[in-house]
Amino acid sequence: MTALPSRWRDGLEQFAGAYPARFAIMVFASMNLLFAVLLMTPWATATGEPTPFVDAFFQAVSVVCVTGLTVVDMATHWSPFGNAVVMVGVQVGGIGVLTLASILGLTVARKLGLRQRLMAASDSNPSRVRKGVVKESQAIRLGEVGGLLRTVALSVAVFEAALIVLLLPRILLEGKPFLTALYEATYWSFMSFTNSGFVPTVEGLEPYATDPWFLGVMMVGVFIGSLGFPVYFVLLRHLGAPRQWSLHVKLTISVSLMLFFAGGLAYLVLEWGNADSWGTADFGQQVLHAFFLSTMARSGGFALEDLGLLHNSSLLVTDMLMFVGGGSASTAGGIKVTTLAILFLAAIAEARGRKSMEAFGRRIPSDVLRLAVSVTLWSATIVAGVTIVLLEITGAPLSFVLFDVISAFATVGLSTGFTQPGLEDPAKVILALTMFVGRIGSVTLAAALAASQTTQLFTRPEERPIVG
């Protein structure tokens, strides 16, 4: 009897070593199904009646993929047990299944083997999910994985605890009992840092819609969560020495700040005078709402207004911000800010006639550009394909369908109203699979579809096609 589990374990380890990307997807898919089963049980609902499988599956994927799209009322549908499942799910999804497993292993065994280091490293760098040699000239090396895991555990605990402390007094001012306020503060904290976007109350953000303190804390939580654990790892080691920051950290922080300010200014201009949004409020509130949406559009998922009432130009800006997303190995989704940076650096290098891309005194190799182009192309193809299918199924307006598809793929959670309880079941399943693919990333998916990374031992004759 003991030989059978041993053979299963050996077979699983052999499969993980041979096909790391497929193993990662298998583990993540299993976690989504597990949470779907938990949310489908009668104990998870406030009424005691089981949630239909499609709705439970959709919500489980949205939770574990830290997206925030809903087809049920999150504030009233779930029981205390259901809410606990949701809060645990966003932590598992935000940290990363393989990273979390490695943290638990490090806690129990006090050390990490090579296989555990490789699994954890694959969460911090998608290039590692390919079988074969991986260059170590990157933000996190294998020898630093143990330190990264400790940074992940520490940063999650510290940042979320800080958010709870900052939010709790403001919620108490609403006159709510201490335990209720503590639960809501904890819920808001988890959802902001993990960039999930779920709300614990029926009124949502309405009581705080004009409160700079509450909204500001939420923005800080979402922004920090979107930077990524490799960034925290470097900052904790070299906080007072920016010259020692890696190129990844510099690109992530600089591009994130640029997108934050560019998005806020764009919303401020485009929604000026729009009485259906914030366009007729006083200038201070317009600035607050514009920059709040700029933060949330890149992955936060919280909304103060009905996004379906925004101007189409603002919806398009939101589409672009959602598609880009946040930092690599973060709780945010999208193609990542570093991917956008690489594409622009390549365009600048081409315009200046330079052979290589450069940033912050460093040269970026051409294989990084190839990966950035691949991520962008695959992501755009998936979004376009899913949008076409959903247009055929639902007949909804293109701007609304495209918005929610990008929101699902980039695991943002904002919605124009297309994603709602009355949505057709096939559309729910397709959106759930879109969230799943968006969370695992196009690099991991492509690596899983390929047998392995091979070395080409020959070079074909060169010929240049006409481009442009």
Brief overview:
The chain is mainly α. It has 18 helices and 2 strands. The protein has a two-stranded antiparallel ribbon with strand order 1-2.
Short descriptors:
TrkH family potassium uptake protein; mainly alpha; single chain; transmembrane; transport; monoatomic cation transmembrane transporter activity; about 475 residues; Cat_transpt; globular; 18 helices; two-stranded antiparallel sheet
SSE blueprint:
Elements: H1 3-18, H2 20-40, H3 53-64, H4 80-95, H5 97-109, H6 114-124, H7 145-172, H8 178-193, H9 212-227, H10 229-237, H11 247-270, H12 283-300, H13 312-324, H14 337-351, E1 357-359, E2 362-364, H15 366-394, H16 398-409, H17 425-440, H18 442-449
Antiparallel strand pairs: 1-2
Helix pairs in contact: 1-2, 2-3, 2-18, 3-17, 4-8, 5-6, 5-7, 7-8, 7-9, 7-10, 8-9, 9-12, 11-12, 11-13, 11-14, 12-13, 13-16, 14-15, 15-16, 15-17, 16-17
Number of domains: 1
Strand content: under 5%
Structural class: mainly alpha
Q: How many helical elements?
A: 18
Which spans have pLDDT < 50 for at least 5 consecutive residues? Answer: 101-124, 128-137
Strand order of the largest sheet: 1-2
Major sheet attributes: 2 strands, antiparallel
Order of helices and strands: HHHHHHHHHHHHHHEEHHHH
Morphology = globular
* Distance between the first and last residues' Cα: 65 Å
* Mean pLDDT rating: 84
**Roughly how much helix do the residues carry, as a percent range?**
55-70%
